[in-house]
Amino acid sequence: MRSGVPNFCAVALALNDMGYKAVGIRLDSGDLAYLSIETRKFFCAIEKEFGVVGFGKTNITASNDLNEETIDALNKQGHEVDSFGIGTYLVTCYAQAALGCVFKLVEINKQPRIKLSEDVTKVSIPCKKRCYRLYGKEGYPLVDIMTGQDEPSPKVGERILCRHPFIESKRAHVVPQHVEELLKCYWPGNSSVQREELPSLNENRSRCMRQLERMRPDHLRKLNPTPYKVSVSAQLYDF
């Protein structure tokens, strides 16, 4: 409400002056009922202040893992949403759960970029990174750790501080017996550099199965599995 909606309105007013009409906005996180109501009030205030006829009725679309239950709850609360974007629950069978992944921009021309959100789980971690899997004495993965692109890689037998990306009090020291780099660049985006051949679908599947076989059984059990931890380096946390 302090950034996204005001910025949209500024652009929409500029477009209006040039003879174009903005279609609407999409709310994709947070309290959708509350945000849609506050957004509608904002649109109506803009229409009154600047005399743009119909601006108060600008379309508001809501999304974010919506299903019948969440839409029913929104209807009972009251909202100002004009249309719902239903994706994951429409195209997947939730007995076979979907993996929700979104690419976010983290760097432009070596300048870090961050996405801010009221939902802390949607705040991105800025700068280009590398990722490693740290293994213990028994051969099981202990934790994954993200580091900055230019940080030295973790070393076997070296005491490494692993920090939770957002919770300051959650941290642990790990001494890995084996280190595996997880992130591989096949093409850096430079037209002068030839792209490496990508693995086949079968190769990717086989690698995934091998990785699962190396996990501790308590991470894979269906009832109350132990969460597998992904951490950041101290330098990346302080970034």
What key attributes describe this structure?
single chain, 239 residues, TIM Barrel, nicotinate phosphoribosyltransferase, 2 domains, EC 6.3.4.21, nicotinate phosphoribosyltransferase activity, NAPRTase_C, Aldolase_TIM
Structure description:
The protein has 239 residues and is an alpha/beta fold. The chain has two domains: 4-92, TIM Barrel (Alpha-Beta Barrel); 107-238, Alpha-Beta Barrel (nicotinate phosphoribosyltransferase), CATH 3.20.140. Helix content is 29%, strand content 19%. The chain has seven helices and eleven strands. It has helices spanning 4-17, 32-50, 68-77, 88-91, 201-213, 217-220, 234-238; strands spanning 24-27, 59-62, 83-84, 107-108, 111-112, 129-135, 141-148, 160-163, 171-174, 178-181, 230-233. The strands form three sheets. Strands 9-8-11-7-6-10 form a six-stranded mixed beta sheet. A three-stranded parallel beta sheet has the order 1-2-3, covered by helices on one side. A two-stranded antiparallel ribbon has the order 4-5. The longest helix is centred in the first third of the chain and has 19 residues, at 32-50. It is elongated and about 70 Å long. The mean pLDDT is 92. GO terms for molecular function: nicotinate phosphoribosyltransferase activity. It is an enzyme of class 6 (ligase). Residues 23-123 form the Nicotinate/nicotinamide phosphoribosyltransferase domain. It comes from Aegilops tauschii subsp. strangulata (Goatgrass). Residues 128-238 form the Nicotinate phosphoribosyltransferase C-terminal domain.
